[in-house]
Design brief:
Elements: E1 4-15, H1 26-32, H2 41-55, E2 66-72, H3 75-84, E3 92-96, E4 106-112, E5 117-128, E6 130-141, E7 147-154, H4 162-187, E8 192-198, H5 206-211, E9 214-215, H6 218-223, E10 229-231, H7 234-238, E11 244-246, E12 249-251, E13 254-258, H8 260-263, E14 270-271, E15 282-283, E16 321-326
Parallel strand pairs: 1-2, 7-8, 9-10
Antiparallel strand pairs: 1-16, 2-4, 3-4, 5-6, 6-7, 8-13, 10-13, 11-12, 14-16, 15-16
């Protein structure tokens, strides 16, 4: 009998600890001092409450089996998020690594520990003169004792300009591609690997295609000499939808890219196909997350320090994405 697992990814937009958190290093408190003014426990609890409203709807109301997240500050806020998810009836655990990012935001996984065992963890900080967000790899063991490696990504942002910042995303992409090579050398060419994240580039961006070696061709992935990744988000990119909006233009920044094992019908595990027989992931357009008006932009939460962006009824500036795998 086939067993299916719902795997999600969400940039939860600045899930910071409270303004004067004792868990925050002194250097980071100085860096975030003005940004986190007004970020009280009440604000944090409201933010978590709103995130839980969305997460608890995933997987037809059962919650995700695994959820990758980014823009979380530390383990204490993740623990608060998991505690607030108790209403789903899941026994969630956390895989997390503190990065050296200058804003202190990390990549992590929340997973149902009654289903999965987190066996190995690796983290690598990408440098752009100073540290930025890391790549975070976790090897999960499935209930049928197969290994599923997940790599969470949060590539450098475009805030300095698309082309000015592109070299840093290329560095992250090269790092990811190197990891894929090492994984196959250590685990074998048929290991199941899913790379997910906020890549701050789109499926057709050269950082993703030329350096992370991602493609929309299953054949290229199956017969590649060096490990290639199949990008599940190409259909979303092609239909004009997005996970992030800028100036009302949709961008597919949040993506799933998977290894050969996951695209093969004999893969253990493998990606579930849609009704048309296509391998793809989906964007979670939850109605309460969508702003009114002409464009379906996500309703962001913002920060009290920037009154014009703060919306206590908001969620995140990114829509979540999800895929289903089976074994």
């Amino acid at each position: 009998m086939k067993t299916q697992y719902y795997i999600g990814w969400w940039n939860v937009e600045n899930l910071f600890d409270v303004f004067d958190s004792p868990s925050r290093p002194e250097w980071l408190q100085r860096a975030l001092n003005s940004e986190l003014k007004g970020w009280t426990q009440a604000v944090l609890q409201r933010k978590i409450f709103n995130l839980v409203k969305i997460i608890s709807q995933m997987n037809n109301g059962r919650g995700p089996d695994i959820l990758g997240v980014c823009e979380v500050e530390n383990l204490p806020v993740l623990q608060q998020l998991v505690e607030a998810l108790h209403t789903i009836g899941r026994d969630y655990a956390i895989a997390h690594h503190d990065s050296s990012d200058q804003r202190g935001i990390d990549v992590a996984f929340i997973y149902d520990k009654t289903l999965f065992e987190a066996k190995e963890q690796f983290s690598y900080t990408v440098l752009k003169r100073s540290s930025t967000r890391d790549l975070f790899q976790v090897t999960f063991v499935t209930p049928k004792q197969n290994e599923l490696i997940l790599i969470g990504n949060h590539w450098p942002a475009r805030s300095a300009g698309v082309y000015e910042s592109e070299p840093y995303r290329i560095i992250a992409a090269e790092t990811l591609s190197y990891w894929m090579q090492r994984i196959t050398e250590k685990k074998g060419k048929d290991i199941a690997v899913a790379c997910m994240g906020d890549f701050n580039d789109e499926p057709l961006s050269r950082s993703v295609t030329d350096y992370a070696l991602s493609t929309n061709s299953v054949t290229k992935v199956q017969y590649a000499i060096s490990p290639r990744l199949f990008n599940l988000m190409w259909p979303c990119h092609g239909d004009g939808t997005g996970t992030f909006y800028y100036n009302n233009f949709p961008y597919v920044f949040d993506q799933f890219m998977v290894s050969k094992e996951l695209v093969q019908t004999s893969g253990k595990p493998r990606v579930v196909k849609d009704l048309n027989g296509k391998l793809m992931a989906s964007i979670g357009y939850f109605p309460e997350m969508i702003t009114g008006g002409r464009y379906p932009t996500p309703k962001k939460f913002g920060r009290p320090a920037e009154k014009s962006t703060y919306d206590p009824y908001g969620f995140s500036d990114h829509f979540p994405v999800w895929m289903v795998v089976e074994e």
